[in-house]
Write a sequence for this structure.
Protein backbone atom coordinates (compact mmCIF):
# COMPACT_ATOMS: atom_id res chain seq x y z
CA UNK A 1 0.00 0.00 0.00
CA UNK A 2 2.69 2.40 1.10
CA UNK A 3 4.91 1.33 -1.78
CA UNK A 4 2.11 2.11 -4.18
CA UNK A 5 1.79 5.61 -2.78
CA UNK A 6 5.51 6.18 -3.13
CA UNK A 7 5.46 4.93 -6.69
CA UNK A 8 2.54 7.25 -7.39
CA UNK A 9 4.49 10.21 -6.00
CA UNK A 10 7.61 9.31 -8.00
CA UNK A 11 5.68 9.04 -11.23
CA UNK A 12 3.84 12.26 -10.53
CA UNK A 13 7.15 13.98 -9.90
CA UNK A 14 8.53 12.63 -13.17
CA UNK A 15 5.44 13.85 -15.02
CA UNK A 16 5.54 17.29 -13.42
CA UNK A 17 9.26 17.58 -14.05
CA UNK A 18 9.10 16.74 -17.73
CA UNK A 19 6.04 18.90 -18.27
CA UNK A 20 7.63 21.83 -16.50
CA UNK A 21 10.76 21.56 -18.66
CA UNK A 22 8.77 22.68 -21.71
CA UNK A 23 7.30 25.61 -19.80
CA UNK A 24 10.66 26.54 -18.28
CA UNK A 25 12.22 26.40 -21.72
CA UNK A 26 9.83 29.03 -22.99
CA UNK A 27 10.35 31.13 -19.87
CA UNK A 28 14.10 30.84 -20.29
CA UNK A 29 13.98 32.03 -23.89
CA UNK A 30 11.62 34.88 -23.14
CA UNK A 31 13.65 36.08 -20.16
CA UNK A 32 17.00 35.93 -21.96
CA UNK A 33 15.42 37.46 -25.02
CA UNK A 34 13.75 40.18 -22.98
CA UNK A 35 16.00 42.98 -24.25
CA UNK A 36 14.60 42.18 -27.69
CA UNK A 37 11.04 42.89 -26.68
CA UNK A 38 11.83 46.36 -25.48
CA UNK A 39 11.53 49.20 -27.94
CA UNK A 40 9.98 47.12 -30.70
CA UNK A 41 13.30 45.43 -31.40
CA UNK A 42 11.61 42.06 -31.68
CA UNK A 43 9.51 43.19 -34.62
CA UNK A 44 12.57 44.71 -36.25
CA UNK A 45 14.45 41.44 -35.86
CA UNK A 46 11.60 39.53 -37.43
CA UNK A 47 11.38 41.75 -40.48
CA UNK A 48 14.87 43.08 -41.18
CA UNK A 49 17.63 41.57 -43.31
CA UNK A 50 20.76 40.06 -41.77
CA UNK A 51 23.65 42.43 -42.49
CA UNK A 52 26.02 42.38 -39.52
CA UNK A 53 28.35 44.78 -41.36
CA UNK A 54 25.61 47.40 -41.21
CA UNK A 55 24.45 46.48 -37.72
CA UNK A 56 21.27 44.89 -39.02
CA UNK A 57 20.51 41.61 -37.29
CA UNK A 58 17.13 40.66 -38.72
CA UNK A 59 16.15 37.02 -39.08
CA UNK A 60 13.61 37.52 -41.86
CA UNK A 61 15.89 35.72 -44.37
CA UNK A 62 16.03 32.75 -42.01
CA UNK A 63 12.24 32.68 -41.59
CA UNK A 64 11.91 32.70 -45.37
CA UNK A 65 14.62 30.03 -45.62
CA UNK A 66 12.87 27.76 -43.14
CA UNK A 67 9.51 28.22 -44.86
CA UNK A 68 10.98 27.51 -48.29
CA UNK A 69 12.96 24.43 -47.26
CA UNK A 70 10.32 22.90 -44.99
CA UNK A 71 7.34 23.45 -47.28
CA UNK A 72 9.19 22.08 -50.30
CA UNK A 73 10.33 19.09 -48.26
CA UNK A 74 6.76 18.36 -47.19
CA UNK A 75 5.53 18.85 -50.75
CA UNK A 76 8.07 16.28 -51.92
CA UNK A 77 7.41 13.84 -49.09
CA UNK A 78 3.60 13.98 -49.20
CA UNK A 79 2.86 12.29 -52.54
CA UNK A 80 5.70 9.87 -51.93
CA UNK A 81 4.36 8.91 -48.52
CA UNK A 82 0.77 8.66 -49.67
CA UNK A 83 1.89 6.36 -52.44
CA UNK A 84 3.97 4.12 -50.20
CA UNK A 85 1.29 3.91 -47.51
CA UNK A 86 -1.36 3.10 -50.14
CA UNK A 87 0.90 0.33 -51.35
CA UNK A 88 1.17 -1.01 -47.82
CA UNK A 89 -2.54 -0.73 -47.06
CA UNK A 90 -4.20 -1.57 -50.34
CA UNK A 91 -2.23 -2.43 -53.41
CA UNK A 92 0.09 -5.09 -52.03
CA UNK A 93 -0.85 -6.18 -48.57
CA UNK A 94 0.82 -9.22 -47.11
CA UNK A 95 4.50 -9.97 -47.36
CA UNK A 96 5.55 -7.07 -49.53
CA UNK A 97 3.68 -4.63 -47.31
CA UNK A 98 5.36 -6.03 -44.20
CA UNK A 99 8.75 -5.78 -45.89
CA UNK A 100 8.16 -2.18 -47.01
CA UNK A 101 6.84 -1.23 -43.61
CA UNK A 102 9.81 -2.62 -41.75
CA UNK A 103 12.15 -0.88 -44.20
CA UNK A 104 10.32 2.39 -43.50
CA UNK A 105 10.49 1.82 -39.76
CA UNK A 106 14.20 1.19 -40.14
CA UNK A 107 14.56 4.48 -42.03
CA UNK A 108 13.23 6.43 -39.08
CA UNK A 109 16.22 5.21 -37.10
CA UNK A 110 18.92 6.37 -39.50
CA UNK A 111 20.79 9.30 -37.94
CA UNK A 112 20.21 12.61 -39.68
CA UNK A 113 23.90 13.20 -40.17
CA UNK A 114 24.09 10.15 -42.44
CA UNK A 115 21.50 11.69 -44.76
CA UNK A 116 23.41 14.96 -44.64
CA UNK A 117 26.68 13.28 -45.44
CA UNK A 118 25.29 11.35 -48.37
CA UNK A 119 23.63 14.56 -49.54
CA UNK A 120 26.89 16.49 -49.49
CA UNK A 121 28.83 13.96 -51.50
CA UNK A 122 26.19 12.62 -53.88
CA UNK A 123 23.26 14.98 -54.23
CA UNK A 124 25.00 18.35 -54.08
CA UNK A 125 27.39 17.67 -57.00
CA UNK A 126 24.48 16.20 -58.97
CA UNK A 127 22.33 19.29 -58.40
CA UNK A 128 25.23 21.60 -59.23
CA UNK A 129 26.21 19.86 -62.46
CA UNK A 130 22.75 19.07 -63.77
CA UNK A 131 21.18 22.44 -63.07
CA UNK A 132 24.21 24.51 -64.12
CA UNK A 133 23.67 27.29 -61.67
CA UNK A 134 24.81 27.85 -58.11
CA UNK A 135 26.94 25.68 -55.89
CA UNK A 136 24.48 22.84 -55.38
CA UNK A 137 24.12 23.89 -51.75
CA UNK A 138 20.61 25.23 -52.01
CA UNK A 139 16.95 25.06 -51.01
CA UNK A 140 16.34 22.22 -53.47
CA UNK A 141 19.13 19.95 -52.18
CA UNK A 142 18.13 20.47 -48.57
CA UNK A 143 14.43 19.96 -49.32
CA UNK A 144 15.02 16.75 -51.28
CA UNK A 145 16.96 15.16 -48.45
CA UNK A 146 14.67 16.59 -45.80
CA UNK A 147 11.72 15.17 -47.73
CA UNK A 148 13.27 11.71 -47.55
CA UNK A 149 13.99 12.28 -43.87
CA UNK A 150 10.40 13.12 -42.93
CA UNK A 151 8.77 10.63 -45.30
CA UNK A 152 8.99 7.64 -42.91
CA UNK A 153 7.10 9.56 -40.22
CA UNK A 154 4.41 10.41 -42.74
CA UNK A 155 4.25 6.89 -44.14
CA UNK A 156 3.80 5.31 -40.72
CA UNK A 157 1.03 7.77 -39.81
CA UNK A 158 -0.69 7.41 -43.16
CA UNK A 159 -0.61 3.64 -43.30
CA UNK A 160 -1.89 3.39 -39.73
CA UNK A 161 -4.73 5.75 -40.58
CA UNK A 162 -5.58 3.79 -43.72
CA UNK A 163 -5.54 0.53 -41.81
CA UNK A 164 -7.88 1.98 -39.19
CA UNK A 165 -10.71 2.62 -41.69
CA UNK A 166 -13.40 0.07 -40.74
CA UNK A 167 -13.18 -3.08 -42.78
CA UNK A 168 -16.92 -3.03 -43.38
CA UNK A 169 -16.65 0.19 -45.43
CA UNK A 170 -14.13 -1.43 -47.64
CA UNK A 171 -16.12 -4.59 -48.07
CA UNK A 172 -19.23 -2.59 -48.89
CA UNK A 173 -17.42 -0.68 -51.60
CA UNK A 174 -15.97 -3.86 -53.01
CA UNK A 175 -19.39 -5.42 -53.05
CA UNK A 176 -20.57 -2.52 -55.19
CA UNK A 177 -17.91 -3.48 -57.70
CA UNK A 178 -15.27 -0.87 -56.82
CA UNK A 179 -11.73 -1.57 -58.02
CA UNK A 180 -8.93 -1.39 -55.45
CA UNK A 181 -7.96 2.05 -56.79
CA UNK A 182 -11.55 3.26 -56.37
CA UNK A 183 -11.66 1.85 -52.86
CA UNK A 184 -8.50 3.76 -52.04
CA UNK A 185 -9.61 7.08 -53.52
CA UNK A 186 -13.28 7.08 -52.52
CA UNK A 187 -13.29 5.12 -49.26
CA UNK A 188 -9.93 4.79 -47.58
CA UNK A 189 -8.37 8.23 -48.07
CA UNK A 190 -11.56 10.14 -47.13
CA UNK A 191 -11.98 7.86 -44.12
CA UNK A 192 -8.40 8.35 -43.01
CA UNK A 193 -8.05 12.07 -43.64
CA UNK A 194 -7.62 13.01 -39.99
CA UNK A 195 -4.72 10.63 -39.56
CA UNK A 196 -3.28 11.92 -42.81
CA UNK A 197 -3.51 15.53 -41.67
CA UNK A 198 -1.99 14.60 -38.30
CA UNK A 199 0.94 12.93 -40.03
CA UNK A 200 1.30 15.92 -42.30
CA UNK A 201 1.37 18.43 -39.44
CA UNK A 202 3.82 16.42 -37.36
CA UNK A 203 6.17 15.88 -40.29
CA UNK A 204 6.02 19.58 -41.08
CA UNK A 205 7.06 20.18 -37.48
CA UNK A 206 9.94 17.81 -37.94
CA UNK A 207 10.98 19.47 -41.20
CA UNK A 208 10.93 22.91 -39.59
CA UNK A 209 12.83 21.71 -36.55
CA UNK A 210 15.55 19.76 -38.30
CA UNK A 211 18.93 21.45 -38.07
CA UNK A 212 21.60 19.31 -39.59
CA UNK A 213 20.20 18.83 -43.08
CA UNK A 214 19.72 22.56 -43.60
CA UNK A 215 23.10 23.32 -42.05
CA UNK A 216 24.91 20.83 -44.27
CA UNK A 217 23.01 21.22 -47.53
CA UNK A 218 21.20 24.54 -47.81
CA UNK A 219 24.32 26.71 -48.01
CA UNK A 220 23.43 28.96 -45.06
CA UNK A 221 23.58 32.24 -46.96
CA UNK A 222 21.64 34.82 -44.96
CA UNK A 223 19.45 35.93 -47.84
CA UNK A 224 15.83 35.48 -48.81
CA UNK A 225 15.96 32.73 -51.45
CA UNK A 226 14.55 33.77 -54.80
CA UNK A 227 14.82 30.41 -56.46
CA UNK A 228 15.15 26.77 -55.55
CA UNK A 229 18.80 26.97 -56.47
CA UNK A 230 19.58 29.81 -54.09
CA UNK A 231 21.53 29.22 -50.95
CA UNK A 232 19.38 29.76 -47.85
CA UNK A 233 19.67 29.59 -44.08
CA UNK A 234 17.08 27.96 -41.83
CA UNK A 235 16.25 29.29 -38.36
CA UNK A 236 17.71 26.18 -36.78
CA UNK A 237 20.94 26.41 -38.79
CA UNK A 238 21.14 30.09 -37.84
CA UNK A 239 21.08 29.16 -34.18
CA UNK A 240 23.81 26.58 -34.74
CA UNK A 241 25.98 29.09 -36.60
CA UNK A 242 25.52 32.07 -34.31
CA UNK A 243 25.67 30.29 -30.97
CA UNK A 244 29.46 30.43 -31.21
CA UNK A 245 29.55 34.22 -31.36
CA UNK A 246 30.06 36.65 -28.51
CA UNK A 247 27.44 36.14 -25.83
CA UNK A 248 26.85 39.85 -25.28
CA UNK A 249 26.41 40.73 -28.93
CA UNK A 250 23.09 41.51 -30.56
CA UNK A 251 23.63 38.75 -33.11
CA UNK A 252 23.72 36.25 -30.25
CA UNK A 253 20.43 37.65 -28.91
CA UNK A 254 18.73 36.88 -32.22
CA UNK A 255 19.06 33.22 -31.23
CA UNK A 256 16.29 33.77 -28.73
CA UNK A 257 14.05 35.27 -31.37
CA UNK A 258 14.65 32.19 -33.52
CA UNK A 259 14.05 29.92 -30.55
CA UNK A 260 10.79 31.60 -29.66
CA UNK A 261 9.62 31.38 -33.27
CA UNK A 262 10.44 27.68 -33.51
CA UNK A 263 8.78 27.07 -30.16
CA UNK A 264 5.67 28.92 -31.24
CA UNK A 265 5.51 26.93 -34.45
CA UNK A 266 5.86 23.59 -32.68
CA UNK A 267 3.28 24.59 -30.10
CA UNK A 268 0.84 25.63 -32.83
CA UNK A 269 1.38 22.36 -34.69
CA UNK A 270 0.83 20.32 -31.53
CA UNK A 271 -2.34 22.22 -30.66
CA UNK A 272 -3.65 21.74 -34.18
CA UNK A 273 -3.08 18.00 -33.96
CA UNK A 274 -4.78 17.80 -30.57
CA UNK A 275 -7.81 19.65 -31.83
CA UNK A 276 -8.04 17.18 -34.67
CA UNK A 277 -7.71 14.33 -32.23
CA UNK A 278 -10.52 15.62 -30.05
CA UNK A 279 -12.84 15.84 -33.04
CA UNK A 280 -12.19 12.21 -33.81
CA UNK A 281 -15.52 11.02 -32.46
CA UNK A 282 -16.81 7.65 -33.61
CA UNK A 283 -18.84 9.16 -36.43
CA UNK A 284 -20.88 7.02 -38.77
CA UNK B 1 50.50 35.67 -4.17
CA UNK B 2 51.80 32.34 -3.00
CA UNK B 3 50.58 30.71 -6.20
CA UNK B 4 52.31 33.26 -8.40
CA UNK B 5 55.58 32.66 -6.63
CA UNK B 6 55.15 28.94 -6.89
CA UNK B 7 54.55 29.15 -10.62
CA UNK B 8 57.45 31.46 -11.18
CA UNK B 9 59.68 29.05 -9.30
CA UNK B 10 58.29 26.16 -11.31
CA UNK B 11 58.81 28.06 -14.54
CA UNK B 12 62.42 28.76 -13.63
CA UNK B 13 63.00 25.11 -12.82
CA UNK B 14 61.42 24.01 -16.10
CA UNK B 15 63.41 26.53 -18.08
CA UNK B 16 66.62 25.48 -16.40
CA UNK B 17 65.72 21.88 -17.07
CA UNK B 18 65.03 22.60 -20.73
CA UNK B 19 68.23 24.58 -21.06
CA UNK B 20 70.27 21.83 -19.40
CA UNK B 21 68.92 18.90 -21.38
CA UNK B 22 67.52 20.25 -24.62
CA UNK B 23 67.85 17.02 -26.58
CA UNK B 24 67.25 14.25 -24.10
CA UNK B 25 64.24 15.76 -22.32
CA UNK B 26 61.16 13.81 -23.30
CA UNK B 27 58.24 16.13 -22.77
CA UNK B 28 55.87 13.18 -22.68
CA UNK B 29 57.71 11.94 -19.58
CA UNK B 30 56.10 14.79 -17.65
CA UNK B 31 52.76 13.07 -18.11
CA UNK B 32 54.04 9.92 -16.33
CA UNK B 33 51.96 9.16 -13.30
CA UNK B 34 49.56 12.01 -14.09
CA UNK B 35 45.85 11.48 -14.18
CA UNK B 36 43.11 13.80 -15.26
CA UNK B 37 41.03 15.27 -18.01
CA UNK B 38 41.79 18.09 -20.41
CA UNK B 39 38.80 19.66 -22.14
CA UNK B 40 39.65 21.68 -25.21
CA UNK B 41 37.35 23.64 -27.51
CA UNK B 42 37.29 26.60 -29.87
CA UNK B 43 39.22 27.48 -33.02
CA UNK B 44 38.87 24.89 -35.76
CA UNK B 45 42.25 25.70 -37.34
CA UNK B 46 43.91 24.38 -34.18
CA UNK B 47 42.24 20.99 -34.25
CA UNK B 48 44.80 18.97 -36.29
CA UNK B 49 47.59 20.03 -33.92
CA UNK B 50 45.44 19.40 -30.85
CA UNK B 51 44.49 15.94 -32.06
CA UNK B 52 48.02 14.87 -32.87
CA UNK B 53 49.31 16.14 -29.51
CA UNK B 54 46.42 14.43 -27.74
CA UNK B 55 47.08 11.19 -29.57
CA UNK B 56 50.72 11.14 -28.50
CA UNK B 57 49.89 12.04 -24.92
CA UNK B 58 47.17 9.39 -24.72
CA UNK B 59 49.55 6.80 -26.12
CA UNK B 60 52.17 7.68 -23.54
CA UNK B 61 49.67 7.83 -20.71
CA UNK B 62 46.14 6.48 -21.16
CA UNK B 63 45.12 7.94 -17.80
CA UNK B 64 45.08 11.42 -19.26
CA UNK B 65 41.78 11.98 -21.05
CA UNK B 66 41.62 14.71 -23.65
CA UNK B 67 38.47 15.87 -25.39
CA UNK B 68 38.67 18.23 -28.35
CA UNK B 69 35.74 20.18 -29.73
CA UNK B 70 35.48 22.88 -32.37
CA UNK B 71 33.04 25.77 -32.27
CA UNK B 72 35.20 28.63 -33.49
CA UNK B 73 37.36 31.20 -31.81
CA UNK B 74 34.44 32.92 -30.13
CA UNK B 75 33.50 29.68 -28.41
CA UNK B 76 37.10 29.03 -27.36
CA UNK B 77 37.41 32.42 -25.68
CA UNK B 78 34.01 32.22 -24.04
CA UNK B 79 34.23 28.65 -22.79
CA UNK B 80 37.77 29.07 -21.47
CA UNK B 81 36.68 32.28 -19.76
CA UNK B 82 33.63 30.65 -18.19
CA UNK B 83 35.64 27.65 -17.06
CA UNK B 84 33.64 25.24 -19.25
CA UNK B 85 36.86 23.97 -20.80
CA UNK B 86 40.42 23.84 -19.55
CA UNK B 87 41.95 25.17 -22.74
CA UNK B 88 40.12 27.41 -25.20
CA UNK B 89 41.59 27.91 -28.65
CA UNK B 90 41.33 31.09 -30.62
CA UNK B 91 42.51 32.17 -34.03
CA UNK B 92 42.34 35.80 -33.04
CA UNK B 93 43.96 37.55 -30.16
CA UNK B 94 41.33 38.00 -27.45
CA UNK B 95 40.46 41.64 -26.92
CA UNK B 96 41.77 43.47 -23.87
CA UNK B 97 38.23 43.48 -22.48
CA UNK B 98 37.94 39.71 -22.86
CA UNK B 99 41.33 39.16 -21.20
CA UNK B 100 40.39 41.47 -18.32
CA UNK B 101 36.82 40.16 -17.94
CA UNK B 102 37.79 36.51 -17.73
CA UNK B 103 41.36 36.77 -16.41
CA UNK B 104 42.65 34.89 -19.45
CA UNK B 105 46.21 33.75 -19.86
CA UNK B 106 47.17 33.84 -23.53
CA UNK B 107 49.60 31.42 -25.19
CA UNK B 108 50.55 32.10 -28.80
CA UNK B 109 52.12 28.94 -30.15
CA UNK B 110 51.95 29.28 -33.91
CA UNK B 111 51.70 31.69 -36.76
CA UNK B 112 49.18 30.91 -39.46
CA UNK B 113 48.23 32.51 -42.73
CA UNK B 114 44.73 32.59 -44.15
CA UNK B 115 44.64 32.02 -47.87
CA UNK B 116 41.92 32.13 -50.49
CA UNK B 117 41.43 28.72 -52.08
CA UNK B 118 39.76 27.43 -55.22
CA UNK B 119 39.17 24.01 -56.76
CA UNK B 120 42.46 22.58 -58.16
CA UNK B 121 40.94 22.41 -61.66
CA UNK B 122 40.19 26.14 -61.67
CA UNK B 123 42.79 28.03 -63.77
CA UNK B 124 42.16 31.32 -61.91
CA UNK B 125 44.80 30.91 -59.24
CA UNK B 126 46.13 34.44 -59.01
CA UNK B 127 44.08 37.48 -58.04
CA UNK B 128 44.88 41.03 -57.10
CA UNK B 129 43.60 42.21 -53.77
CA UNK B 130 41.15 44.44 -55.59
CA UNK B 131 39.80 41.51 -57.61
CA UNK B 132 39.43 39.42 -54.47
CA UNK B 133 37.48 42.22 -52.80
CA UNK B 134 35.23 42.57 -55.82
CA UNK B 135 34.65 38.84 -55.95
CA UNK B 136 33.56 38.75 -52.33
CA UNK B 137 31.45 41.89 -52.70
CA UNK B 138 29.67 40.24 -55.62
CA UNK B 139 30.84 42.81 -58.20
CA UNK B 140 32.71 40.10 -60.12
CA UNK B 141 30.44 37.08 -60.27
CA UNK B 142 31.77 35.01 -63.16
CA UNK B 143 35.07 33.13 -63.39
CA UNK B 144 35.43 34.24 -67.01
CA UNK B 145 36.38 37.74 -65.86
CA UNK B 146 39.30 36.20 -63.95
CA UNK B 147 40.58 33.84 -66.62
CA UNK B 148 38.46 30.88 -65.59
CA UNK B 149 35.53 29.04 -67.14
CA UNK B 150 32.28 30.81 -68.01
CA UNK B 151 30.64 29.84 -64.73
CA UNK B 152 29.17 31.78 -61.85
CA UNK B 153 31.49 32.15 -58.86
CA UNK B 154 30.25 30.26 -55.81
CA UNK B 155 31.28 32.23 -52.73
CA UNK B 156 32.01 30.49 -49.46
CA UNK B 157 32.57 32.19 -46.15
CA UNK B 158 32.66 31.28 -42.46
CA UNK B 159 30.28 32.01 -39.63
CA UNK B 160 30.56 35.17 -37.55
CA UNK B 161 32.40 33.46 -34.66
CA UNK B 162 35.27 32.37 -36.88
CA UNK B 163 38.74 33.74 -36.21
CA UNK B 164 39.75 32.71 -39.73
CA UNK B 165 36.96 34.86 -41.10
CA UNK B 166 37.97 37.74 -38.87
CA UNK B 167 41.55 37.75 -40.20
CA UNK B 168 40.54 37.24 -43.82
CA UNK B 169 37.93 39.98 -43.64
CA UNK B 170 40.29 42.47 -42.00
CA UNK B 171 43.55 41.76 -43.84
CA UNK B 172 42.50 40.39 -47.22
CA UNK B 173 39.21 42.21 -47.79
CA UNK B 174 40.10 45.34 -45.80
CA UNK B 175 36.76 44.93 -43.98
CA UNK B 176 34.97 45.01 -47.33
CA UNK B 177 31.56 43.55 -47.97
CA UNK B 178 30.94 39.81 -48.13
CA UNK B 179 27.89 39.28 -50.34
CA UNK B 180 24.81 37.86 -48.62
CA UNK B 181 24.54 35.04 -51.14
CA UNK B 182 27.84 33.55 -49.92
CA UNK B 183 27.45 30.05 -48.52
CA UNK B 184 28.40 29.80 -44.87
CA UNK B 185 30.29 26.79 -43.52
CA UNK B 186 31.01 26.17 -39.85
CA UNK B 187 34.69 25.07 -39.81
CA UNK B 188 38.02 25.08 -41.67
CA UNK B 189 37.52 21.41 -42.44
CA UNK B 190 34.03 21.99 -43.83
CA UNK B 191 35.39 24.83 -45.96
CA UNK B 192 38.05 22.58 -47.45
CA UNK B 193 35.49 19.86 -48.20
CA UNK B 194 33.10 22.37 -49.75
CA UNK B 195 35.73 23.94 -52.02
CA UNK B 196 37.27 20.57 -52.93
CA UNK B 197 33.84 19.40 -54.09
CA UNK B 198 32.81 22.52 -55.99
CA UNK B 199 34.77 23.34 -59.17
CA UNK B 200 33.47 26.92 -59.19
CA UNK B 201 34.05 27.74 -55.55
CA UNK B 202 36.19 30.30 -53.84
CA UNK B 203 36.68 30.14 -50.11
CA UNK B 204 39.42 30.70 -47.57
CA UNK B 205 41.15 28.47 -45.08
CA UNK B 206 44.01 28.53 -42.66
CA UNK B 207 47.23 27.90 -44.64
CA UNK B 208 47.89 24.85 -42.47
CA UNK B 209 44.75 23.28 -43.93
CA UNK B 210 45.74 23.75 -47.58
CA UNK B 211 46.55 20.40 -49.19
CA UNK B 212 46.23 18.82 -52.62
CA UNK B 213 42.42 18.84 -52.53
CA UNK B 214 42.27 22.64 -52.84
CA UNK B 215 44.49 25.14 -54.64
CA UNK B 216 45.79 28.30 -52.95
CA UNK B 217 45.14 31.60 -54.72
CA UNK B 218 48.10 33.97 -55.01
CA UNK B 219 47.22 37.39 -53.66
CA UNK B 220 48.96 40.18 -55.58
CA UNK B 221 51.36 37.53 -56.88
CA UNK B 222 52.23 36.01 -53.49
CA UNK B 223 51.12 32.42 -52.94
CA UNK B 224 50.07 31.76 -49.33
CA UNK B 225 52.57 29.22 -48.00
CA UNK B 226 54.32 28.83 -44.70
CA UNK B 227 57.46 30.45 -46.15
CA UNK B 228 55.68 33.55 -47.43
CA UNK B 229 53.69 33.86 -44.20
CA UNK B 230 56.84 33.52 -42.10
CA UNK B 231 58.77 36.05 -44.15
CA UNK B 232 55.86 38.47 -44.02
CA UNK B 233 55.57 38.59 -47.83
CA UNK B 234 52.03 37.21 -47.53
CA UNK B 235 50.17 39.67 -45.36
CA UNK B 236 47.04 37.79 -44.29
CA UNK B 237 48.21 36.07 -41.12
CA UNK B 238 47.42 35.72 -37.47
CA UNK B 239 48.63 33.93 -34.37
CA UNK B 240 47.08 30.72 -33.12
CA UNK B 241 46.31 31.05 -29.45
CA UNK B 242 45.43 28.77 -26.59
CA UNK B 243 43.79 30.38 -23.59
CA UNK B 244 43.37 29.35 -20.01
CA UNK B 245 41.47 31.03 -17.21
CA UNK B 246 44.28 32.16 -14.96
CA UNK B 247 47.52 30.24 -14.92
CA UNK B 248 47.08 26.73 -16.33
CA UNK B 249 47.17 23.95 -13.78
CA UNK B 250 47.86 20.23 -13.71
CA UNK B 251 47.62 18.29 -16.94
CA UNK B 252 46.37 21.36 -18.85
CA UNK B 253 49.65 23.08 -18.04
CA UNK B 254 51.58 20.01 -19.20
CA UNK B 255 49.59 20.05 -22.44
CA UNK B 256 50.50 23.65 -23.15
CA UNK B 257 54.12 23.01 -22.19
CA UNK B 258 54.07 20.13 -24.64
CA UNK B 259 53.03 22.47 -27.47
CA UNK B 260 56.07 24.62 -26.76
CA UNK B 261 58.47 21.64 -26.53
CA UNK B 262 60.56 20.55 -29.52
CA UNK B 263 58.16 17.67 -30.07
CA UNK B 264 55.25 20.12 -29.99
CA UNK B 265 56.98 22.36 -32.51
CA UNK B 266 57.48 19.37 -34.72
CA UNK B 267 53.73 18.59 -34.63
CA UNK B 268 52.85 22.22 -35.33
CA UNK B 269 55.23 22.40 -38.30
CA UNK B 270 54.04 19.01 -39.51
CA UNK B 271 50.43 20.25 -39.54
CA UNK B 272 51.43 23.18 -41.69
CA UNK B 273 51.81 26.00 -39.20
CA UNK B 274 54.82 28.01 -38.11
CA UNK B 275 55.72 27.26 -34.49
CA UNK B 276 56.61 30.21 -32.30
CA UNK B 277 58.09 30.33 -28.82
Amino acid sequence: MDGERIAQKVFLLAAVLSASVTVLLLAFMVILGLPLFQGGLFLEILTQPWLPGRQLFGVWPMIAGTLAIASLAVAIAFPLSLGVSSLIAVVAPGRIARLVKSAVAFMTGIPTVVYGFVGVFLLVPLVRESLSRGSGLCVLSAALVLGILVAPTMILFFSDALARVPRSHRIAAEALGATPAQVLIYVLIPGAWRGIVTGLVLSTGRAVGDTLIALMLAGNAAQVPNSLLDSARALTAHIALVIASDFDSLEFKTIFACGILLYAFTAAATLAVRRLGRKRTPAR
Amino acid sequence: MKMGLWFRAAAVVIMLGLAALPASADPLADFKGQKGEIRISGGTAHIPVMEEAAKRIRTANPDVQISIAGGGSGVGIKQAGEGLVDIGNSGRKPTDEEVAKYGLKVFRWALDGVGAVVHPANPAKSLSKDQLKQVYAGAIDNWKALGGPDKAINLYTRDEASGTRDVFWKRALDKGEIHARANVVPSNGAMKTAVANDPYAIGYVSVGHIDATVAPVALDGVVPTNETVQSGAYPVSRGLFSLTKGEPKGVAKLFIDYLFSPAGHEIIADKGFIPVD
Notes: Chain A touches chain B at residues 49-53, 61, 120-121, 124-125, 128, 133-137, 215, 219-223, 230-231, 233, 240-242, 244-247, 251 (CB under 8 Å). The longest strand of chain A covers residues 50-51. The CA atoms of residues 56 and 81 of chain A lie 41 Å apart.
